[in-house]
Amino acid sequence: MNTKKILLYLILIILAIISIGPFLWLLSTALKSPNEDIFAYPPVLIPQNITFQNFVGVWKQIPFMAYIINSFIVSGITVFLNLLLSALAAYPLARMKFKGKNLTFYAILATIMVPFQVIMIPVYLMVLRLNLVDSASDFAGFAGLILPFAVNAFGIFLLRQAFMGIPKELEEAAIIDGCNTFEIWQRVFLPLVMPALATLAIFTFVGAWSEFLWPSIVLTRNEMYTLPVGINHLQGVFSSNWRYISAGAIIATVPILVFFLMMQRYFIEGTTQGAVKE
Questions:
Q1: What are phi and psi of 235, to 5 degrees?
Q2: Which CA distances in Å does 270 have to 171, 189, 202?
Q3: 235 - beta bridge partners?
Q4: Domain containing 35: what range?
């Protein structure tokens, strides 16, 4: 192994340690007993007395199962809508010819440069005037959380690039077999871009599951809280049980890890599938 490879691996190891460091510290705090000082200096990463009582305590402290169910509802519907709407929008941008196609695509891409925080107040006013808040009903509350994130430019871009990588001969063969446009999209193109769909599903699920700012603004009823908002309420005004907060954060991370492990075999293929020239 030459010096260049050794240096490269060393940099990657350092970056991996930096990336996983906060998670290890969170896990260490969650496993420490009440007798151990979590703010000790120098820091102690490995607990002296490992305990799982913090996980039991946080589960009893807040209605954890209700928050998990709410998060699964919001994340699941958000993923489904993103996959459906992004695929529907990406198909004509990739395979059809119409006036203003490139302008439309560039306009969609331009929205990536606009942070959600910039448009958050107008979106909130729209949601409020449409009565899509949890004070109206449970359904309206979930709709107010989901609809602003039902589709995004990244998903359209990713699937457009994936659609462009499919040979035109397959599309022509489907037309000869009598398939209409929708059937070509459904039966030919969607099965061939499954890696890209899985990649988009991972990014969308992680974003929807861990979203805190928007749910904390839209939701007002405790029983409607998603997991990040519910865990935040463990933090008191004058004092906070950081062991419980850390345990809750670890539990909230588990579904993301499970979902990623289920989709990981598609992930690498999906992220490179769009690397084609137009």
A1: -85, 115
A2: 21, 14, 11
A3: 240
A4: 1-51
Q: How far apart are CA 186 and CA 192, in angstroms?
A: 10
User: What dihedral do alpha carbons 186, 187, 193, 195 form, nearest 10°?
Assistant: 100
Please tell me which residue, 260 or 137, carries the higher pLDDT value.
260
Alpha-carbon Rg of the chain, whole angstroms? Answer: 23
Strand partners, 240: 235
Q: Are residues 76 and 206 both part of a single domain?
A: yes
Stronger pLDDT, 70 or 64, i.e. the higher one:
70
For residues 196 and 67, membership in a common domain is answered with yes
* pLDDT mean across residues, the chain: 85
Q: Is residue 239 part of a domain?
A: yes
* Residues 9, 100 within the same domain: no
CB 201 within 8 A of CB 114: no
Domain count, the chain: 2
Same domain, 72 and 136: yes
Fill in the amino acid letter for 187: R
Taken in order 148, 234, 62, 133, the sign of the CA dihedral is negative
> Do residues 191 and 255 both lie within one domain?
yes
CA quadruple 263, 265, 271, 275: dihedral sign: negative
- Fill in the amino acid letter for 146: I
Residue 41 forms part of a structural domain: yes
User: Would the pLDDT of 107 be above 90?
Assistant: yes
pTM: 0.84
DSSP state of 184: I
Q: Give the model's pLDDT for residue 278.
A: 44
Choose among 197, 215, 193, 209: nearest CA to 82. 197
pLDDT-wise least confident of 124-128, 238-242, 249-253: 238-242
